[in-house]
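Please check this today:
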Amino acid sequence: MEKEDKVMLLGIWASPYTKRVELGLKLKGIPYEYKEEDMFNKSPSVFKYNPVYKRLPVLVHNGNPIVESAIILQYIDETWQNGPRIVPDDPYRRAKARFWDKLHSTAEGESIQICIDPREELTFLKENKYISYRS
């Protein structure tokens, strides 16, 4: 008997954190149900699945909630082997990715704008085969 693989994402359409989880699910080709939440009037599901922070997004996989977008992306990457890797295999590159994510999360709510060198981002996308160049 095949194991059921039910995936639901609770999110807010304007949230960059929800969008990056959606992108991760789409990159891996994972079918999921999306439930739009009202940021100012959250449903009981938010409080049920994320009783500590009561924030979005929340990924629910076979009834088990995973919260915080960076943790959700890591979970997606480790759970589904199909599709491209989301988290780099190389420990140094993985540490750099975590650094940028942490810096962005720490700066949230402050008037700090973080700019990643576009050449570094382009190199990352090219090396991970998210994009390719034509000669």
Notes: Residues 91-107 form the longest helix (17 residues). The mean pLDDT is 83. The chain has five helices and four strands. The first strand starts at residue 7 and ends at 11.
